[in-house]
Amino acid sequence: MTENRKPHLGDYIPVVGEAKVEELLRFGEELKGLKLQQINSARHGGGVAEMLISLIPLEESLGLNVTWDVITGDPAFFSYTKTVHNFLQGKPGSLDLVGAKAYWDTNRKNYALVNEQADVVLVHDPQPAGLITFVPDDVRRRQKWIWRCHIQTSRDACLLMNPVRSLIELYDVAIYSSTRYCTWDIAPFIILPYIDPLSEKNRDLTEAEIQTVLDRHGVGDLTEKPLITLVSRFDPFKGHAFAIESFRQVRARRPCQLLMVGGTAGDDPENELILAEIKEKISGLEDVRVLNLPADSHLDINALQRASSVILQPSVKEGFGLTVTEGLWKGKPVIGGDTGGIPAQIADGYNGYLITPGEGGVAEMAERIGFLLNNPVMAREMGRRGRETVRERFLITRGLWDEMMLLKTLTR
Ligand code: UDP
Fold first, then answer.
1. Which helix (H) or strand (E) holds 82?
2. Is 244 found in the same domain as 384?
3. Residue 326 CB–ligand 1 contact under 6 Å
4. Domain-located, residue 218
5. 184 lies in a domain?
6. Closest Cα to atom 10, ligand 1: which residue?
7. pLDDT interval class at 245 (50, 70, 90)
């Protein structure tokens, strides 16, 4: 589908079948005209933006009146919210008062974005979560507020994070990707994330399209050196260092190449630092490259995933891991850290492999990569199963259905 044509649900019939699309259209009838405001902190970059870009036009095509607003803030704000994010995922950090002030000042300023006429306001992740505190009582009484958590919160951190807890408990419902993340006293609703099979990131590509991308990035002969790919923001939890170490072990035994594709997100101040660390780790290593791509490089990422023999996502923490879903959808075996949302997607040995997160998983990962490269028929079968896993459970039509169900439950 081209970027400038609005998607229509009918376009999804060849992928998910007519019955599912008809069900959705009937659902849409019930919610027609509902005013929904989605609020997050980045228009591009990262999984949240990725889902909203595809979801919102479909919600509109069902007759909902949807707006999408993105809060803005300065580096002090985003640095503080990244610390909160990391803390919730279990990485120790200190939450200073200056950062807290930046948080509340920024949320207060951004309250101007809130549509007081909306029936439902859906806020994503901690950055804009504070907006709810500025809603006047009369508005709050007639609006529903939903907080969607895209991160893998650690139970211990949740116990410690009383200020965040008391903020989130102001919401009517919290959406999580797994019940294991629900530790606060708020009605939980589970929606597993999803990908859009028709987006530039995931649509089918011709061999020629794939080759053009490979040439553009100077990716060498895949027959001689099969490609192993990790697509991720340059973030401390994504496991780049473990991928490099495993690759080093595999390459000592057979030819192959590793590509780490990443980018920066406007709401993530850690990217540059982690990128510098990765560059230092791979300096002098052959057949390893890191590509820092602009946020809209969807076609390039699609092609690189399709050209790969194995996809890695050795995260230490992972809210869900859309890169895993994307790899599976492209018929590739995916090796992922056994953490967060990854085991919901990978059945170990069936459509990929789960490895111990962190340093302890490096040798396992190397062994699994080696096995897949040496057994391409098995790898292809795992890939086929992976694509079916995604078709059944992780496509946007299912995500749309889940969100409609929640909206109906809350408002009708
Ligand atoms: N992504 C991208 N460019 C990059 C890195 C990631 O477009 O340089 C995309 C990736 O393809 C996926 C999303 O960003 O769609 C990342 O989602 P995921 O759930 O894996 O991780 P998050 O970044 O949300 O922690």
1. helix 75-88
2. yes
3. yes
4. yes
5. yes
6. 323
7. very high
203 in Cβ contact with 197 (< 8 Å): yes
Looking at the fold, whether 245 and 185 belong to one and the same domain comes out as: no
pLDDT mean over 140-148: 97
pLDDT recorded at residue 5: 65
Residues 405 and 360 in one domain: no
Nearest Cα residue to 302 out of 194, 226, 195, 225: 195
Q: Is 301 in the pocket of ligand 1 (CB under 6 A)?
A: yes
Give yes or no for residue 196 CB within 6 A of ligand 1: no
Cα–Cα distance measured from residue 68 to residue 122, given in angstroms and rounded to the nearest whole number: 10
> Best of 50, 213, 316, 390 to mutate for ligand 1, by most ligand atoms within 8 A of CB?
50
Overall number of domains in the chain: 2
Does 278 share its domain with 185?
A: no
Q: Which atom of ligand 1 is nearest to the CA of 201?
A: 11
Separation between Cα atoms, residue 136 and residue 141, nearest integer Å: 9
Tell me, rounded to whole angstroms, the distance of Cα 317 from its chain centroid.
12
pLDDT in tens, 91-130: 877 788 899 999 999 999 999 999 999 999 999 999 999 9
Residue 323 Cβ < 6 Å to ligand 1? yes
CATH number at residue 60: 3.40.50.2000
pLDDT score of 243 more than 80: yes
Ligand 1 centre distance from Cα of residue 26 (Å):
32
Q: Which atom of ligand 1 is the closest one to the Cα of 297?
A: 7
CA distance 337 to 352: 11
Domain residues for 116? 9-194+395-411
403 and 388: one domain?
A: no
| Same domain, yes or no: 15 and 60 | yes
